[in-house]
Structure formats: structure tokens, C-alpha cells
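Usage

Read records sequentially. Each one opens with the input sequence:
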Amino acid sequence: MLSLDSLWTVVTCQAKQIQRLSTMSQTNPPILSVLPIRALVDEKFEVLVENLPAGSPVTLHALHHSEDKDYWEAYAHYISDHRGTVSVAEDLSFGGTYTGIEPMGLLWSMRPVPGSRTGLRLRKMDVHSPMLVNISVYSGHIAEGFREQPPLASALTERWYMAPGVRRIDIKEKGVRGTLFIPPGPGPFPGLMDMWGGSGGLLEYRAALLASHGYVSMALEYFSPGELQSAELEFKYFEAAFNIIKDHPQVIPDRVGLFGLCLGAVVTMYLAAESTITKPRCCVCVSGNHFYPRGETLSGMHKAMMRNSHKARMDENDHYIVRDVTLPITSDLSMKVDVRKINCPMLLVNGHDDQNTPAVESAEDIAQMMHTAGKEHLLTRLHYPDTGHLIEPPYSPHFRATKFITESTKAKVILLWGGQTKPHSDAQEDSWRKILAFLQQHLYSTSIPKAKM
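and closes with the structure output:
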């Protein structure tokens, strides 16, 4: 009896023979279509190859040249059906960077091409331009040498964070630095303050995407350590940023929310619990914890964490794991955000394989604290298995470990974020859909259609 591998070899050889025979009589070249060719990054597309010989093995390949001048790719092996067609949305991939029926696998399974620098992370910095992805179809099942042979057909697709009509405005007022994105249309709209993690700098792509869904969104730039010398001044920085959004003429003042990842999630919870000027309408916290020593600046918080730096460790690949630094979760209320004071709906999104912060353990403690205050009804939790720290908008590649330069120490390490590619990517798609539904529920009283490409 033939083994499965031997049987597959026979089937492949027969398919190649059919392809050679059919190609001799074929006069029209294969047709590759990607619809829509231009879309927001969180919208699905359909990839279809037609006019192939029946039973023909082909490889679909996606290639992106990043703003950092690195090449990212994904590929998958298919066999055309009796009509000579391959539909990525309906057909099985038999191998490549993903397998099975995965309509968006050509995006979420992207990885640096062989020979690239180590520890890369793909991020869009210029939201005025699209992420360009070239999709090609090649004869046969191949895994390398894509540049050495011509494709049967190619199509260039545009993936946008900023929809047509979204306005981008630099913010430099009241000591606050950031970027405001305003949706198209007359408004006013709900508002969001968008905060990233501890690497610092200004990241705009998520705020631009949120504006494309109908929210006036500010990407807040984190200040440099030591710029604000007290926790009081630091707290006022975030409050000033929140009020800039709230007081904008295009914003509904009582419908402003907070959105944070990692350190941004910590700040989100702290603002929701401690701010006396105004309260957010709702909060979204991704991969965060509630460790925040009372009276400390963010730099001071980092120093407090580093007192337990001996708990950090390296894995077998010399990737830095820091999730244990704040474990076990303290019972000392002076060392964490008093989430019992939060009076708005809060959504926690976490991965069980987060190797950067103990987000799931923190979520359990947050739930217990809110329960004791009779506020468990305000809390919604999303936990995903085999999912790491960097839970981004859908169809973004999975980054298990990347180079990281801490804003406070300028140390260069390769951090282990965690997660496995397929479940992590599924979590990104599912959580984004539920985040948008959560924001719709709590920031909009009536549905307003999002902008279309």
C-alpha cells in the first residue's frame, strides 16, 4: 500500500502531466483577480485564478516591500479544479506559509523573506500611502526562487489604514503631541484616544483605521522619560490630551473613549479610575495589566518593575521573556490601579501565550476587584489561546519575537511576544470585530456607516 507521501507524489506527477498536456492546447493565459483591489486593511479580499488547466498545481505568492526596505512574503500551494479555477476563499492550501481554507492567509502568514535581518516587525508609518502587496501565481508547487522565474499572472493590491475623506491633523497644543484623525462627513462623531506601548514614539495606523470606522481618533505621542518630573504633571498630560479630543467641535463631548495596548492599557485604566476632570465613556485595553505604583511616573513604574528583573529570563533562542517580572499579582492596592473606581464599560483583550506581560492573570485580578465593588457588569473579557502580546488589527502578520528598544533605557533586545501564527491571527480577526462592536454599542446611539474605499 502506498504511503500518504508516496500517494501525494503520484497525484502531483499526474497533475503536472495533465498540466503539460492541457497547456499545449491552451491559447489564453491564466487570469488572476483580487477583489476589491483597493480596501481598508481590515477588509477581506477575494483572490481568484481562472483559465488554468484542470488539475494544475500552482503557487500563489504575496510580496510586500516595507517602508524599512525589507521584503515580506507569504505563499500557498493549490491545485485547480475541473474548471481550471483556484479560489483562495474556497479551496485548500496543501502547503506553504499556511494550509487549509484561509481566505486572508496571503496576508496574515507573511514573514520576512529568507536572508532578512532578524527580529523584524512590520508597521505602517506613513498612513497617507497604502500598503502595497503584489500577488502572483506561479506554475507548480514552489517554496523559493520566486524572483528567478516569471509568474503566470500578477496583481497589485492596495491596503489602506486611512479611508478617503479622513483628515489627518498634527496636534501640538497644551504640551500635548499627537495626531488627530477625523472621519469624513458633517459630524459630530464619538472620540477615541489611542495609546500604544512602552517603546515610545508616534504610531498612527490604528487611530487612522478607527477614524475610517467613524471615530475622531487621536494617536497620542508618548513623552520622553524625565520630560515630566512628577506623576501629577504626567497625569495632567494625559488629561489634557483627552480634553483636546472632548472639546473638539467635531466630537460629541460625552462620547469619548480610551483605547490602549500594553502600557497604553495601563494608562487607560488609570485615567478611567483616577481622573477627576472627566470620565471616558468606555475603555478598550489590549494586552495590559494594572500594575501602577501610586505616585510614580511611568519611568518610576518601569524602575519598580525592574526591581524584579531577576525574574526575567531568556528562552532557548535567546529571546527575552519579561512576563514574570510583575508576578505574582500583588494584593497591595498601592501598587496597582484601583479598578474598583472605574465607572464605565471596559473591554479586556488578552492572549494566553502573552510572554511580555501577565495579562490574563491581571485580568483575573481586575475581575475580582470589580466584583467586590459590584461592578462586574461593566467588564467584558476576551481571552484567546495560543495568542501572544501584539494583538493588532486583523490580517496583520504575527510577530512572535522582534527587536525592541526600550524608551527608558535604550537597551536593545529581542523580546518574545508569544503566540502561534494561525491562532494568533484568528484572535486578531475575532477581537477586532468585537472591539468595533463594543465601541459601536457604547459610543454610538445610532449606527453611522463607516467610510468605504
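Summary fields computed downstream for this record:
- Residues 1-25 have pLDDT under 50 and may be disordered.
- The domain at 167-443 is CATH 3.40.50.1820 (Rossmann fold).
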